[in-house]
Every structure is written in structure tokens, then in C-alpha cells.
Amino acid sequence: MMRSAIEILNPGLAASVQDTGRWGYQSSGVPVSGAVDQFAFRLANLLVGNQTTEAAIEFMILGPTIKFNGPTFIAITGGTCQAQLDNQVLQLNQAYQVKAGSVLQFKPMIAGRFGYLAIKGGILTPSVLNSRATTSRIQLGGLAGRNLQVNDRLPVEISYGLANLAHRQLTVQQPMVKKKVLHFVKGPQWQLFSARAQQIFTSAEFAVSQQADRMGYRLTGPTLPVPAKNMLSEGTVTGNVQITRSGQPIVLLADRQTAGGYPVIGTV
Predict the structure, then answer these.
(1) Could you tell me which residues are beta bridge partners of residue 249?
(2) What is the rounded CA–CA span in Å between residue 156 and residue 117?
(3) What percent of the chain has pLDDT over 90?
(4) Could you read off the pLDDT of 36-81 as tens digits, one per residue?
(5) 173-195 in b/e burial notation, b at 16+ Cβ within 10 A?
(6) Strand pairing report for 83-85 and 103-106
(7) Per-residue confidence (pLDDT) for residue 105, from 0 to 100
(8) How far apart are CA 251 and CA 184, in angstroms?
(9) How would you list the strands of the sheet with 264-267, edge to edge?
(10) How far apart are CA 30 and CA 69, in angstroms?
(11) CA gap 94, 43 in Å, rounded
């Protein structure tokens, strides 16, 4: 397998190497991590002929500017953004051929929050605990356990061909709706919350605040009465809705801590 590299000219916002996650180590305190939007991540890999578990680049709001030092194929999925390859506008959810020396750049997203760039053969950084996913809070995986920076070089496969290139595209409805109804199952502490708290949680409107990252989405909206009873820390799962002492919900995401002590009212 011949290798090349992609060079990061501008890291964009919170760009990192991710895959489907580092499973099997939560009992040792290691977060799962991996892509936040697993559907968009897996779709990007499929479009370039990869296994869905191959590592790709995840970014938030603004994608990185990248120079390709060898020929390959790429696909971009996720939030609604405009990408350009050598000044040619690229469509989301479609595979494209890339020549050596080409430069890819992005404009900020107009809808959604996370985007994905898959490259044929995947990002070939070292695997740590059976995963290439980046967990920046504990400096594990990816490239030196951190988000991408200017002048970083990521190893990739050189690729000259991709079967059925013209047909590797998919129409996916983009998330333009401002309001959505989220479904949930009752959390392990549901009964600890008062009827008033349960009513607020199920009927009020909440919005994703500016305090939102890979660890979780902190929501703004009416505060919920918090149970007076203290609880021991227990394991967490993706989608847990913790209620902080201030009465604000946090929806846990990929980089969530493996255990938490806030009561969980539900799981999205």
C-alpha cells in the first residue's frame, strides 16, 4: 500500500480524527468518543468505498483547509456547508476525485453543527486501544491526542481509482427545521423528579446553548426543580439527559464522561 499525506493549512474549528469509537474500556474510565453524528460519518465512508469504521475527519461549524499531496477520493457529509476543491464547489453526500496538489476549503455551516470528511482508505494514524478516535480531554488517539493544528500531516492511502464514481452520491434531507420534537425513554432517576419537573421537561421548549461541544449539549430553557436526594455516580450512555444543580439539562454526547453524579431524567 502506497502512502501519501494530507496537510492541514488551516484547522477550522474543532477538527479531529474520529472513527466509530473506542468501545470496551469505559469500565477503566476511558470515554468511547468517536463521531458525534454516526449516520453522517458512516455515510461519508461508504461513499468513498471504505468500511464504515475507517477513521475520518470530524469538524464543527467550520471545516479545515487541506492540501492533498497525493491522488485520492473524498466525500463530505453532515451539516449544511459549502466546500470548494480548487475553487470548484462540491456537493454534500457525493464522492469526488482529488488530484495531487489540490486544496480543499470550507465556508461556515448554515445549518447543523458537525461535518465529516472521509478519504478513501481512511486516516491512517496509529490505533490506540483498538481505535483511532481522538479524546482530546485525556490526549488519547487521533494525532497526538488533540484537535488538528496548522502544518499537521495525516497519513492516507494513494488511490487512483474508485468503482462507480459517477453514482456515488445520495440525496439526504438537510436539517433546516428550527424546531424538532425529540423522543426519549425515562431515565433511571425519572421517579426522583417531581410531577412539575416532569411536566416542564416534556412540554417546554429548549435550545442548544453556546456551551455545546463533543462532550454534551447544554440546553437553555426553563429550569427544572432538582431532586433533593443525593445519588452515587453511575455509568453514562449517549443521549443521557442530566439535570445539573442549576436545573439545566445537558444531553451527553460522544466524549461524555464514563460515570456521572447528576440525576438522569431521560435518554434521547
Answers:
(1) 243
(2) 13
(3) 90
(4) 999 999 999 999 999 999 999 999 999 999 999 999 999 999 999 9
(5) eeeeeeeeeeebeebebbebbee
(6) antiparallel
(7) 97
(8) 11
(9) 185-186, 264-267, 240-243, 249-252, 216-220, 207-212
(10) 34
(11) 10
Whether the per-residue pLDDT at 231 is higher than 90: the answer is: no
Helices (H), 213-265: none
Scanning the chain, the segments in alpha helix (DSSP H) are 38-47, 195-203
Q: How far apart are CA 9 and CA 105, in angstroms?
A: 9
User: What's the pLDDT tens digit per position in 172-221?
Assistant: 776 566 788 999 999 999 999 999 999 999 999 999 998 889 999 999 99
Q: What does the alpha-carbon distance between residue 18 and residue 116 come to, in Å, rounded to a whole number?
A: 9
Distance CA 250, CA 214 (A): 12
Q: Using an 8 Å Cβ cutoff, are 250 and 216 in contact?
A: yes
Q: Which three cell numbers stand for residue 21?
A: 469509537
List all residues 6 or more positions away from 218 whose beta carbon is below 8 Å from its beta carbon. Answer: 208, 209, 211, 212, 248, 249, 250
